[in-house]
Structure formats: C-alpha cells, structure tokens
C-alpha cells in the first residue's frame, strides 16, 4: 500500500478554527463551514460567480453562482458533531440542556443521552426516565468522576441545504444526494434510488479509487525523490562552479597584478637608464662651465697685473687650457640627447573585449 503523505484530517474549519458547521466541500477537496464560505464570497464580491479556496487558492466556479450549490460534506458534519459532544463530556464544561427553552442555571445539562443524542438537564432527565420509549436509553452522567466510555454518536436525518427537506434519494446521473423537491424539479427523469441502498456501491467505488491512487503515488513519489536529489546535485554543482570561477579569477587577478608590477619595474629601469644618461651629459656641461669660468676668472685677474713676469709665467698655460675648453665646447652637443618619452602601450579596449568574452557557463 502507498505511504500516506496526506496531512491528518481534523474536524475544525481552517477559516474559523472551530468545529465545522454545515460543512461544504469544494472541488479541490477542501472543506469549510458554510458561513465561512459565505463571508469569503462577500469579501470577494457578490458579482463574481467563482470563489477562491481559502486553503489552496484554487478558483472554484460556483454552481448557479451560489454557495448553496456546493457539495455538502455530511461526513465532516457528523464527525464534527461527534468530536464536539465528546469534548463537552470529557472537559465537563457547562452545557445547556438541548430540550429546555428556559435559559437559566437550572437548565445546565447533567447527563447525555446516547440514544437521543441530546444533553439533558436534571428535570428532562427525570422526564426521560419516566417515558416508556426513553426509559431504557443509555445516559452518561456528566458529573461522575469515574472514567467515561465515550458514546458513538447516532447519525441524524440529513437535510437539503437549499430546501431544508430530508435528503432521501441519490441521483445516479448527477452523482448527488437530493431531496423530494430536488427530485421533482431537476431529477425526475434521471436514474435515481433511495440513498440508503447506494451505500455499498459508493463505498466500493471509493475503495477502487483508493486502489487506483495506490498505483499512482509510488512512481510519482519516486519522481519527486529523484527531482529533490537533482535539486541537491544542482545546488552542489553550482557551488563547485562558483568556487572554480572565483579561483580562476583570483588567478587572473594575481596574473594581472604580476604583470602590473613587471611593467612598473620595466618603466623604472627605462626611466633610470634615461635619467643616468641625461645626468651624465649634465655633469659634462657643469664641469665645462666650471672649468671655463675658473680659467676665465684667472685670465681676467692675471691680465690686470702690471708686472710682466707675473703675466708671462702663467699666460701660456691659461690660454692653452682655455683654448682646449673652447674647442671642447664646440664639439659638445648643447642639446640633451635622448628626448624620447617613456610610453606605456596598454590596449585596454582589446583587453576588455577579451575579458568580456573570457570563459562561459553552459549545460
């Protein structure tokens, strides 16, 4: 048998959180109190002939545009009443007598009649015991401190939600319970029967549906498990790819940083060589200027001396040296050589294009 993956069925309405009152089942198989669906429809707008399920948000087309056309969930109605009665008995909460119409403290129920399905006050209990028809009914004392065997609640007569008549027939063509008025108006020419006689057939059909579902659920469940496993694999592979991409670009960043440092070092080397060349030329210029200035100053000073011996003693050396300096200046280029500027060739557009096209991610 297929594993039951459905949530537990509770007898409380998901909208009001209370036991169902006149529960109606939507085509999406979710049930709600009639009053709750009416309120939901009013909020949605009376002009709309559809209704959104409060649980799964499925849009439901209402029969004849009315809430009353929805399927009565008699199972939930009976189970809710049964759960409510058992809760009142177990909790020993103060419950009013179902027969009395006078609402005072004397009407608090003291027993529950399992046969009538009613809570009875002390007075009604006594009347009950004196009645020939009801004398042998099973009564549960609500005030006893002993453990109580909770009753099986009897099924009451069921009524048509539209006509308030007893639901007596089952229309096989429409697959629904109908009252005498419904039968006369809508189903007289249809194939119908007393609903009491159709129970076994309905139970058999439901069991066949369950068996069919048991064939569907395992393969679909397996497909879900495979899909969930695939999602895990996708997540794992995604993280692996993310890590690989990040590591690759960290390496690219490291390579770019290294290339940047290499280019900076080359720039420093080229600039250093050019700087040394210019400084060497400047040193020659400065030395020549210093030598010429010094010789000129000496020549000028000696030329002012009045003693011929003083002048003649140094005249030859000074004039010869000055002539050499002058000749050297003529040979010395007065423009600094190597005017070329250091240029960095960085084709950022080409590199950006290559980066934009670098790598790919595909299935």
TrEMBL record:
Q: Which organism is it from?
A: Amphimedon queenslandica (Sponge)
Query: Per its record, how is this protein called by name?
Result: RING-type domain-containing protein
Q: Which GO terms describe its molecular function?
A: zinc ion binding
- Which Gene3D superfamilies does the record cross-reference, listed alphabetically? 4.10.830.40, Classic Zinc Finger, Zinc/RING finger domain, C3HC4 (zinc finger)
Q: Which residues form the RING-type domain?
A: 13-57
Q: Which InterPro entries match?
A: Bbox_C, TRIM45/56/19-like, Znf-RING_euk, Znf_B-box, Znf_RING, Znf_RING/FYVE/PHD, Znf_RING_CS
Going by the UniProt record, its keywords in alphabetical order are: Coiled coil, Metal-binding, Ubl conjugation pathway, Zinc, Zinc-finger
Q: Which domain of life is it from?
A: Eukaryota
Q: Which residues form the B box-type domain?
A: 92-142, 155-195
Coiled-coil residue spans: 231-258
């Amino acid at each position: 048998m297929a594993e039951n993956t459905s949530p537990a069925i509770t007898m409380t309405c998901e909208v009001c959180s209370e036991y169902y009152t006149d529960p109606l089942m939507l085509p999406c198989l979710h049930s709600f109190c009639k009053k709750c669906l009416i309120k939901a429809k009013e909020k949605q707008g009376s002009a709309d002939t559809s209704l959104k399920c409060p649980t799964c948000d499925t849009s439901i087309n209402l029969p004849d545009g009315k809430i009353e056309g929805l399927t009565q969930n008699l199972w939930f109605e009976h189970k809710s009443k049964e759960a409510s009665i058992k809760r009142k008995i177990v909790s020993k909460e103060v419950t009013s007598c179902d027969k009395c119409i006078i609402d005072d403290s004397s009407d608090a129920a003291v027993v529950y009649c399992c046969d009538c399905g009613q809570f009875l006050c002390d007075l009604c209990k006594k009347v009950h015991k004196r009645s020939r028809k009801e004398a042998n009914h099973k009564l549960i004392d609500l005030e006893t401190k002993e453990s109580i065997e909770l009753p099986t609640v009897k099924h009451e007569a069921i009524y048509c939600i539209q006509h308030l008549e007893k639901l007596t027939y089952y229309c096989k063509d429409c697959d629904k319970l109908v009252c005498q008025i419904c039968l006369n108006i809508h189903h007289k020419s249809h194939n119908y029967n007393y609903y009491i006689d159709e129970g076994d057939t309905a139970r058999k059909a439901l069991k066949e549906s369950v068996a069919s579902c048991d064939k569907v659920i395992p393969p679909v469940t397996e497909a879900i498990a495979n899909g969930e496993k695939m999602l895990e694999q996708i997540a794992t592979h995604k993280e692996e790819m993310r890590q690989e991409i990040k590591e690759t670009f960290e390496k690219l960043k490291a390579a770019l940083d290294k290339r940047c440092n290499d280019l900076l070092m080359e720039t420093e080397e080229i600039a250093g060589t050019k700087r040394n060349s210019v400084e060497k030329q400047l040193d020659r210029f400065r030395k020549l200027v210093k030598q010429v200035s010094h010789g000129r100053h000496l020549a000028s000073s000696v030329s002012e001396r009045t003693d011929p011996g003083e002048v003649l003693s140094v005249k030859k050396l000074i004039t010869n040296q000055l002539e050499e300096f002058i000749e050297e200046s003529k040979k010395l280029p007065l423009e600094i050589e190597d005017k070329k500027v250091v240029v960095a060739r960085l084709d950022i557009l080409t590199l950006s294009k290559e980066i934009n096209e670098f790598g790919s991610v595909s299935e």
